[in-house]
Write a structure and sequence with these properties.
By secondary structure, the chain is of the alpha+beta class. It has two domains: 269 residues, no CATH class; 130 residues, Alpha-Beta Plaits (2-Layer Sandwich). The chain is built from twelve helices and 19 strands. Strand 1, helix 1 and strand 2 form a beta-alpha-beta unit. Helix 1 runs parallel beside helix 3, helix 3 crosses helix 4 and helix 7 packs antiparallel against helix 8. The longest helix has 19 residues. The radius of gyration is 26 Å and the shape is globular.
Length: 462
């Protein structure tokens, strides 16, 4: 057993994302173990562009409120700061305001009176256009445009670093609700603010970003990070869970193209020399992390709505079809496109038909190995994309008879595939896409951030 680190800054990370679930027992354990702050992430680009373009959250209001209420009550009782990044999934202004309203409702219902800092990071197209013209915006792969069409985006956010959170704490905030923020920054903010080493603070933030994902039982609990000048320790909040050198070190591979270097606003974390050692059966100590300062940049994410989609689904167990799935799907696609062009004509506009054989290769899209054994059945998903919802549905209706009855070979009897829904057409709604994957150079970490401080009673009757 190694001696534990002393003079650390301790951050309780109760969950990987607000709304996934917070255990009150975990939070209580972290408070009792000496937490100096509570911090967690609440958003991501993982679930696609719709949440940014619409400003709506991925998780339900009830789920967010349940988790946030636990954390706000703990914050008030322990009198330690609570930091939440990327509120409302996308971290745009509407999503942040939505989270703010939930927090104020919780405060009113529980008799709480926190001072709340709101960090807004949504950007206006005109300001970014001027920065791009000055050579301060450049693309990240796979984007190539150095003059992005900011005006085509419904919403744009810039990913904050830890500095706006630190400034909010300096201003006396009890709770900091942040717009779009890097996952690591919201966890590194308090350690950095209180003088911990930059390398350990950023590395601890990266490892703990998904809560218990760095433990041997990822769904069992959150974690506590204890950050010192030259090292950090990480341990699960549940007494029955464990952190091991393997479970901790493996998280540097999570959503990171380089297992040793992580780019962040204002620099890069380098863990090439890091060592992961077990303190005991539950706790891991990490040394050797470093952080190199670089010109300050913020990643830009922009999204917008596009066309509309209508879906249809059939289940296929026909052995002949399943023996030649690729030929069947290619034939089906050709027949359906020709039918729309012949029947709807120019009125269809620029449309797209996608066929996705689930149970074969729909996840990867890559052709299966020629030696692959035919599956017992597949679900064939039809996706029509067009300029309007009505057009997408009319295209689906036009394709309906062939989608449900197309034979593999013309000389065979007409088949009927299994459709699970009636009506068969399912209107999915608008399609959204990312328009930006760029970085913008800033002269100050708060240059693109707007901070608003409020007292809960100000909105008590809102």
């Amino acid at each position: 057993m190694q001696q534990r680190l002393k003079d650390t800054v301790n951050v309780l990370v109760p969950t990987g994302a607000l709304g996934v679930g917070v255990k009150e027992s975990d939070v209580a354990a972290g408070i009792a173990a000496g937490a100096h702050a509570i911090a967690c992430d609440a958003g991501s680009t993982d679930s696609g562009p719709a949440y940014l373009a619409t400003g709506k959250a991925k998780y339900s209001r009830a789920a967010i409120k349940t988790d946030l209420a636990v954390l706000m009550r703990a914050q008030a009782k322990a009198r330690i700061p609570l930091l939440i990044g990327s509120c409302g999934t996308s971290g745009c202004d509407a999503a942040l305001d939505w989270t703010r309203d939930i927090a104020l409702e919780i405060a009113r219902e529980n008799g709480l009176n926190p001072r709340i800092a709101l960090l807004y990071s949504e950007q206006q197209p005109g300001q970014l256009t001027a920065r791009a013209a000055a050579g301060r915006v450049w693309p990240l792969a796979p984007m190539t445009s150095t003059e992005p069409a900011f005006g085509d985006c419904d919403r744009i956010v810039a990913l904050m670093g830890p500095e706006p959170y630190m400034a909010a704490l300096e201003a006396g905030a009890d709770i900091v609700l942040g717009g779009r923020t890097t996952d690591t920054a919201v966890l590194a903010a308090v350690p950095l603010h209180r003088g911990a080493g930059a390398g350990p603070a950023w590395h601890a933030g990266k490892i703990a970003e998904c809560g218990g994902l760095c433990t041997t039982h990822p769904r069992d609990s959150g974690v506590m990070i204890r950050v010192g000048r030259d090292a950090f320790e990480i341990e699960p909040l549940s007494a029955t869970n464990q952190c091991t050198p393997r479970s901790v070190s493996a998280h540097m591979l999570y959503e990171n193209s380089d297992p040793f270097v992580l780019l962040e606003p204002g620099g890069e974390l380098d863990v090439t020399a890091a060592r992961y050692e077990a303190v005991n059966e539950r706790v891991v100590r990490v040394t050797g992390s470093s952080f190199r300062s670089k010109p300050y940049t913020m990643k830009l994410e922009g999204a917008a709505g596009g066309g509309f989609q209508t879906l249809m689904l059939v289940g296929i167990q026909d052995r002949a079809v399943l023996a030649e799935i690729d030929r069947f799907v290619a034939k089906m696609h050709e027949v359906l496109v020709q039918r729309v062009r012949a029947t709807v004509g120019d009125a269809a506009g620029a449309f797209d038909i996608s066929l996705r054989p689930y149970g074969w290769n729909a996840v990867s899209g890559a052709l299966a190995d020629s030696a692959a054994t035919p599956p017992r059945e597949i679900g064939l998903l039809f996706v029509a994309t067009a300029a309007t919802q009505d057009l997408a549905t009319q295209i689906a209706k036009t394709c309906n008879p062939w989608f449900f009855h197309l034979p593999l070979n013309e000389e065979t009897e007409l088949p009927s595939y299994a459709f699970p829904f009636s009506p068969a057409e399912i209107e999915r709604g608008q399609v959204f896409e990312f328009k930006l994957n760029h970085v913008v150079h800033v002269s100050h970490p708060a240059e693109l951030v707007r901070t608003v401080l409020i007292e809960a009673p100000e909105f008590a009757n809102a």
